[in-house]
Design goal:
- Chain B: This is Recombination protein RecR.
- Chain B: May play a role in DNA repair. It seems to be involved in an RecBC-independent recombinational process of DNA repair. It may act with RecF and RecO.
- Chain B: Belongs to the RecR family.
- Chain B: One of its GO terms (molecular function) is zinc ion binding.
- The complex is a heterodimer of chains A (about 500) and B (about 200).
- By secondary structure, chain A is α+β, with helices and mostly antiparallel strands.
- Chain A has 2 domains: about 150 residues, 3-Layer(aba) Sandwich (Rossmann fold), CATH 3.40.50.300; about 270 residues, RecF/RecN/SMC, N-terminal domain (Glutathione S-transferase Yfyf (Class Pi), Chain A, domain 2, Up-down Bundle).
- In chain A, helix 4 crosses helix 6.
- Chain A starts with a strand and ends with a strand.
- Chain B is α/β, with parallel strands linked by helices and about 200 residues long.
- Chain B has 3 domains: about 50 residues, Helicase, Ruva Protein, domain 3; about 100 residues, Dna Topoisomerase Vi A Subunit, Chain: A, domain 2 (3-Layer(aba) Sandwich); about 30 residues, no CATH class.
- The longest helix of chain B has 17 residues.
- Chain B is globular and about 60 Å long.
- Classes of the chains: A alpha+beta (about 500), B alpha/beta (about 200).
- At the A-B interface, helix 4 and helix 6 of A face helix 6, helix 7 and helix 8 of B.
- The structure holds adenosine-5'-triphosphate, magnesium ion (MG) and zinc ion (ZN).
- The site of magnesium ion (MG) has 5 residues of chain A, from helix 1.
- The site of adenosine-5'-triphosphate (ATP) has 16 residues of chain A, from helix 1.
Chain lengths: ~500, ~200
Amino acid sequence: MHVAHLSLTDFRSYDTVDLGLEPGVTAFVGPNGQGKTNLVEALGYVATQSSHRVATDAPLVRHGASRAIVRSVVVRDDRRALVELEINPGRANRARLNRSPMSRPRDVIGLLRTVLFAPEDLALVKGDPSERRRFLDDLLVARAPRFAGVRADYDRVLKQRGALLRTAAQARRGSRSGRRAENDAGFAAAGAGDVLSTLEVWDAHLARQGAELLAARLELVEALRPLVAAAYASLAPGSAPASLEYRGTLSTGGDGVSPEGVSPDDVPPAPGSTAGVSTAGGQATEEQPARGPVGESANGRDAGARSVMAEHGTAGRGTTARPAAAQGTAAHKAHPAADRDTQSAAGQSAHPAVGQDAHPAAGQSVVDRGAIEQALRAALLEVRSAELERGVTLVGPHRDDLFLGLGELPARGYASHGESWSFALALRLAAYELLRADGGDPVLILDDVFAELDTQRRRRLAEFVSSAEQVLITAAVPGDVPTELAGAWFDVAEGSVTRVR
Amino acid sequence: MYEGVVQNLIDELGMLPGVGPKSAQRIAFHLLAAEPTDVKRLAHALLEVKEKVRFCRVCGNVAAEEECRICRDSRRDPHVICVVEEPKDVVAIEKTREFRGRYHVLGGAISPIDGVGPDDLRIRELMTRLADGRVTELILATDPNLEGEATATYLARLVKPMGLKVTRLASGLPVGGDLEYADEVTLGRAFEGRRLLDV
Ligand SMILES: Nc1ncnc2c1ncn2[C@@H]1O[C@H](COP(=O)(O)OP(=O)(O)OP(=O)(O)O)[C@@H](O)[C@H]1O
Ligand SMILES: [Mg+2]
Ligand SMILES: [Zn+2]
C-alpha cells in the first residue's frame, strides 16, 4: 500500500500543509526543528491513532489551536480510501472514512499500516524490558487487532489482582478484620469471604489472558528470529549475528540465562525461586539434549512444571548441556497430551509445546496455550506468599523481556551506539517483513536513520528498503540521503514543505 | 462557583452516575428556569422512590413490597435462578420473555479496585436460597466483562459441591449488525463461545 495524499491542519508546527505522495522513495530534508518528523508522525497517527513520540494527544495539536486534523488518501490494490481524523485532546477523536463518519474512530485503525523507525527506537535496545514488550505487543496488535482486547484484558486483570493482593497484604499485617464472614460457618466453610478465595478466580483469569498473550509473543519471537538475524546481517555483513530470546518469568524453554556475559540487569527480577528463563534461540540441532531451566529453581518439580516449552536448539553459546529428564517428567504432568509426542526424555525435546521435532503444519499454532496456562497457574501458586508480602503479581508476561544478543554478548550494555542503532533498525525491518508477508506492503518510514550509520550500513539499508512499495525518509542534511535512494524530494523549512524533485 | 444553594444543587447533581460538572450545571439551570410544579413533581418522585421502593427480601430486585412481583408470582419456575448484577439487568432479561424462572440480584460484581469482594454482594443470600436443594439450574448472567466473568467463575466454584447445573449466557454478536462491522473483541468472544449446529 502507499499514501497518495497527506494534508494537515493545526497538527504540531503546521497550520496547514498539503502533500501529494507517490510510491517509491520520498525524502524530506531540512534543518533541525523544521517539521520533518511532524509529517511522518502524522502518518503514524493515521495508522495507529497514537504517536511514537508522546503518550497523550495534546502536543499533537498546534499551540493555540483546539483540534488537529489529519487527512490521508491510502491506496491499496488500486482502491483508494480517504481517512480523516480529528484529534480532540481530552475529548473523543472523530474519524471519517470516505467522508462518512465512523461511530468508533478506532475502526479506521489499520487501514494504513506503517512501520516507523525513529531515533526513539534506540530504547528498544538500550531501554527497559517494557520497551521491548511494547514492541512485541504492538506488533501483535498490528497483525491481529484482536490482541488489543487481549492486552487490555490482561492489564485489567493485573490491576484487579494487584488491588486484591494489596488488600490481602494489609489484612495480613493488620487485625484480619477483612475476614468478616468467619463467624458465618457455612459461608466460611465454602471458602467465601476470604481474600484467597477470590484470588483463585483472578489467578484463573490471569493465567488465561496471560497464556494467550504469552503464547502469541512466543510465536511472534519465533517468526521474528530469522528475520531479525537476516536484517542485521544484511546491514552489517560479517559482524556477529543478532539473536533474540524470549525471557520469561515463566520458564518457557530449556535455554536460559547463559552463564557468560549476561549482566544482572538484563534479567528481569526473578520472583522468589522462579528463574528468568527463556525460549532457546539459534540453530536447532537435533542431537543436542535439551537443557534444563537455568537459574536453578528451588526444587526440580517446580522447575519442570513451569517448563512448558521445549528446547528448540541451542543458542550456540557453549552452555553446558544438562539432561532433560526432570523437566520432561514434570512437563508431562502439566500437560498429558504431550505424552504421545515425547518418546524419551533425553536426546530430544522434553516437551513439544513448541514443535520443533515434528514439522508443524502450515498455519498451525506451534505454541501450546493450554500448557502455558497451566504452568502459569502453577507458577502463581508457587510465588503466592511472596506476592502476598509484596502486593504485586510476580509472574506473567508483564514481567518478561525480549533478550537481544549480538554474538556472545547481550546488546544491552555492550553494543556500540552504531550497533545498537542497527539492532533497533533490524527489529523494525523484521516487523516490516512480517507484516508484508501477512499481505500488503506497509509504508516504511525511516526518520533520521541514516545520519547514525557508517557508509557501508547506509548502502546496505538503502538496498534493503529499495523493494518496499513506499519508503518515506527524513534527513537533516542532504548528504545523509543515500544516492541509491533517488526519488521524490521535499525541502522542509519554516513550516513549509516544497517539492524540489 | 455560584451562590450557596445553586452550587449545592450542582454539587448534588454532579454526584449522580454519568453526570459530569458541565451536565450538572446545565441540569441545575434548567431546573431554575422550570415551572415550580414541574420541579415539585420531580422532588416528589425522588422522595417517593426512596420511601416506597425497597429491595426484595428474596432476590434483591427492586420491589414495592417485601417481595418483588416476580418472587410473588407462583407461575415462575422455582427450580431455575438467573443471577444478575443489577436490577436493570432483570428488566432487560424480562423484556426478552424468554426466561420463566426466578432471579437473584447480586448488587454488583467482584472488583478489588473498587473494594468490592464477595462479602459486599448478595452471595450469602444466594447460598441460603440454594440450600434446600429445590433449585436445579443456576444461570450466571453477569456482565460479559472481566469483573462479570470473575464473579461468574467465583460463583460457579462456590456452588460446585452442590451439584446443580450451572450455565453461563453466551456472549455473541449483536443481531442486525453486519459481521464485518462487529468489533474484534466481540467477534473474538463469539468465536470462543461458538456451538455445534444441530441439523
Ligand atoms: N503542538 C505544537 N505546536 C507548535 N509547534 C510545535 C508543536 N509541537 C512541536 N512543534 C514544533 O515543531 C518543531 C519540531 O518539529 P520536528 O520534530 O518535526 O522537527 P524535525 O524537522 O524532525 O527536526 P530534527 O531534524 O531535529 O529531527 C519544533 O520546533 C517544535 O517547537
Ligand atoms: Mg526529527
Ligand atoms: Zn424478588
